[in-house]
Recover the amino acids of this structure.
């Protein structure tokens, strides 16, 4: 059901934890299943030098957070904003269809962390930040299957 890569990232997640004095922190949640993902980024000269996460959720959410932080490290903000949940799923060599929605949290958490970074910079209006980061007001996932494993 799960690829070796998903199991690897779930059992041995990379980049877990917080970044002290993070440039941006993004927290998203799925109100249906209750999973929460918090992403921390350190930005220097427009490059994401470090990315970490804390996820309270299912195994797929942990694996996608782990791989997403690996993907965005070393990328520019612009490149990181282009990351889609599909790329995260592909990097994990697939997820069961009922778990694809979990990967959306990773994409959204990155966008929120970058939005937080822009807010801290204080150079852009909230409307501009929402536009650049593609923030949606509605974060509810209608596809959540409520099959949490209860893992932290
Ligand atoms: Fe994984 Fe909803 S985020 S079960």
């Amino acid at each position: 059901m799960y690829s070796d890569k998903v199991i690897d990232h779930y059992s041995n997640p990379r980049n877990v934890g917080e970044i002290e004095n993070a440039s941006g922190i993004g927290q998203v949640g799925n109100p249906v299943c209750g999973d929460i993902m918090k992403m921390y980024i350190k930005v220097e000269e427009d490059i994401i030098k470090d990315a970490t996460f804390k996820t309270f959720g299912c195994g797929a959410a942990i694996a996608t957070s782990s791989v997403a932080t690996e993907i965005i490290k070393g990328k520019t903000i612009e490149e990181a904003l282009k990351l889609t949940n599909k790329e995260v799923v592909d990097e994990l060599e697939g997820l069961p269809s009922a778990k694809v929605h979990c990967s959306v949290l990773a994409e959204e958490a990155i966008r929120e962390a970058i939005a937080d970074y822009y807010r801290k910079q204080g150079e852009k209006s909230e409307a501009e930040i929402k536009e650049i980061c593609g923030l949606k007001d509605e974060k509810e996932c209608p596809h959540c299957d409520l099959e949490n494993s209860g893992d932290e």
Summary: The domain at 4-133 is CATH 3.90.1010.10 (Sufe protein. Chain: A). Confidence is low (pLDDT under 50) at residues 146-152. The first strand starts at residue 24 and ends at 29.
